[in-house]
Fold this sequence. Notes:
The structure holds 2 protein chains of 2 kinds. Chain A has a single domain (4-262), classed as Rossmann fold, CATH 3.40.50.300. Chain A contains 10 helices and 9 strands. Chain A has helices at 42-49, 71-77, 93-103, 108-121, 137-148, 167-184, 195-201, 219-226, 231-239, 250-262; strands at residues 4-13, 16-26, 31-35, 57-62, 78-81, 155-159, 187-191, 204-209, 212-217. The longest helix of chain A has 18 residues, at 167-184. Chain A is globular, with a radius of gyration of 19 Å. Chain B has one domain (2-244). Chain B is built from 11 helices and no strands.
Amino acid sequence: MPIISVKNLTKKFKAFTAVDDISFDVEKGEIFAFLGPNGAGKTTTIKILTTLRQPTSGSIRLDDKDPAEDPEGVRRSFGIVFQDPSVDDELTAFENMEFHGVLYGMEKTLRRKRIEQLLTFVGLWDRKDDILNVFSGGMKRRLEIARGLLHHPKVLFLDEPTVGLDPQTRNHIWEYIQRLNREEGVTIFFTTHYMEEAARVASQIAVIDHGKILKQGSAQELKKATNTDSLEQAFLSLTGSGIREEEAGSIDHLRMRHRLWTRR
Amino acid sequence: MSTIYILWLRQLKRFVRSRSRMIGSLGQPLLFLVALGFGFGPVFQKAGQGNYVQFLAPGIVAMTVLFTSIFSGIEIIWDRQFGFLKETLVAPVSRLNIMIGRTLGGATVAVLQGCIVFLITLIAGFRPMDWTLLPAALGFMILIALLFTALGTAIASVLDDFHGFQLIMNFVVMPLFFLSGALFPLDDLPRILSVITRLNPLSYGVDGLRGTLVSGAHFGLGLDLGILAAITAFLLILGSYLFSKIQI
Lengths: 264, 248
């Protein structure tokens, strides 16, 4: 039985259809890549799967539970690294980890052991008592990933986890994630814009655009179906090469105001 | 239980760490106390109402608690925009516990601020009539803090971004403060003002504080307590409901 099963999922925002009648299954223990250009509907799908949004229609089972009916049960089964920052800038690195561990009901010895292990792993252990507002973007990203790996869930969602990280760190982190997948059978569901990353680690790939899944299969199958010899070319041949607009603006505006506000 | 504790602790840590915010938020009450307290003092005295600082101090303490607690509740807007709210909302804990933890944290911070301002009023010459009633005054501060943190949470749960913030400031927070009896006695007011002040929950908070710190409650301490408790309970339920409906 698949660990994630999505049937005819649709999400509309007023006139705009972000996710348009998609269906897919993710098998237990799989590494599943969800690829698509900006604004294709990836993040919206992840938000629905992780109980942050309600779908307009369609059905979902995650670890045999329905996010709409049993959100708390579903939340016990997954972990997530978000695309946007979600750490608290006014807490230290250690406190952010500790907060997460307590929220997920981790027993103290295991929690402390893993925090040390993961912070060391992402190279932040000697900075653990620094408040995050002195951290660089890359450091915050590393912390964010370490935090997502703290409790070992059944399904781990990674929404563009490695964006803004150098190739060394990216490889390092993917090795860890693959080991987690291999040794503990954690199912991985991730999105990325780095095609070679997807080609290397994913056993299944779904390409989504304009809210619809265009193709699904292994990297091999996608290349074959599109008659191309790399995943990047396969991706471009499926989604076209036009450049997409991404919604932005208000958040930058807000960040500025927030700074003014906290220094008041 | 641990969820509530860790969220409470987070609010407290943020409060203690942002010293500029703490000091900044003391500026306003201090200004009101000095400018109004000493500025209107002579007129108040001539009108036969006694010492204005003595009258005003409980109102300024209530104002501090009001501002701090409403903003603690509204901080959810920041957490939503800067992502941290997501981290708590996908965790396998009930939203009710998240809401309780946040509210208790925000209220604690507001009461601490209120106590600091209370100490400042002592320096400005304020003297409580009966020191043994101080715990009762603290009780009123806690109620005011809970009530308005819950109100802030309820408001923030239905606002998507910062744009509504100025609106709340001008049409909720300021009227609550100015139309509460924090600055003027509630006796012999024009009819319309008398009705409005009676509808304002902060009026009962100010009255409770004044009743315990100085004596001479306008509504009576029993009524103050009853109304504050009822509205607090209602807003906590409403806030929890709205918070549980947040979508990101």
